[in-house]
Amino acid sequence: MTAHPAGTAAGPRTAPGPGAPAPHEGPALLLNREAPGADVVEDALRSAGLRVTGPGGSGPDAPGVCCAMLTGERVLGHGGQGGGRPLDRRAVAETARAMAERGGGRMLLVTDFGPEVHAATDPGHAADRAGDLAFWRHLAARMAPRGVLLNQLRLGVAPFLDGPDGPGGPDGPARRADVLRHLALRRTARPEDLSAAVRQLIAAECSYTVGDTLHVDGGMGLGMIPPAVPGGPPRKAGKAGKAGEPAAAGEPAARGFDLRGRVVLVVGASSGIGRAAAVSAARRGASTVLVARRRTELAELADELDSGPVPAGAAPRHRVLPLDVSRTESVPRTVRDAVAAAGRVDALVYATGLFALDRPESGPDVRDRSLALNLHGYAAFAEELVRYWIERGIPGSVVGVSSVGASAALVRHMESYGASKAAMAHYTRCLAATAGRYGIRVNHVAPGLIRTPMSSIVSSGFERCWLSRIPLGRVGTVEEVASWISYLVSDAAGYVTGTAVRADGGFGLAGLPPLRLP
To answer: Disordered: where is this region (predicted)?
Structure first.
């Protein structure tokens, strides 16, 4: 493998800065170290303070973190020495078993292959890579009960993964420029994007995401079709540069996970996931504007945050704006009040919502209330802030809290809730496509069974049935969801947009409970 600066006297080149989550305890193992991008991943592991070892450890010497490389997608112009090699499934399985005997750990597949069908791809080669990805997901379901959490990181167009001939030969640069027009963020991936994503997925606090894929691709999966003639809203000069130019956006090397100096507007901050998101952002140095109906709970949270620990050099302040979010006509004024109180707003976290079941006697009321809180309130805040960010040239970030119910029909009578959350999820994708050209990112987190005041209505019998379909075998915590929210708000996720992250213990793998055969 080509030498790289990791571990030299100069130190790692992708130091994440304050706020980076602590990794799962090491040592770390890197498989297929000749693959494109392996040097960046090794650098990320070392910058996390992990000792990178070779294969063969067992017992106490088994790795606590393992990253496997499966890169070299030639359709994206990637390749070079070690590119396109198949996954060493035997080594992966043996490592997973050794980690389980050690007591658990994190395993991450770093890949640039995906499920898309490209006309230029050899079908046999594509089928082999699809088999590797499926192997990883099935192994994730098998190993989660033993404490080994497997996930995938899918990287988009990344020149640092290019083969010696560049992106596809002499016409490569023109082809890549055309591909960029299909990306929401209009830039390619950088080593810092990969490094920060690795740090998030191997973190100790990333403990309720199983078998999921984090798309670090600038919105490549949105399916955007660029207009034949460039167009869009008028562009104005802004404080951060020329509005409409995403140059100021997505600079993970500049701030990383650090939220000092940022202002995060948290809607639904009085309890549950919203409260945990506010606490997590504050601990990374952010100021917050707390929005919900319950004034007393908001005031108590603001007092707690003002007296809580903060990173060195941070001076966050926390403000309260009571609001009934279902009254969307009040949202523009609330955003103006937030900007006036805090000086600016850099990010929106929308964590409020309604869970209610449709009954024959309820008529359209449940549907109307579900849409009002789960979709219309979210859209009102997001659109108001996107407008504000475009006018001022601020590369803002929106994070919505959706649900696994957006894609799974969990119980009967969930028509209104499921439809409203599905609408929220697709609204996120569409807004990401619209706002990406201005450097604005829009994502959402889809929690599963999480211990919150809302989940207290779940009966013990239903909870047992749900747990039987969760490979990790337990209920998640609000802090495990908040960790993802803080990542998506930060510059560490500067190349992540239009995507959903599941915090569901592996429920999204959609496996049935183990069958009890006679």
So the answer is: 1-29, 230-252
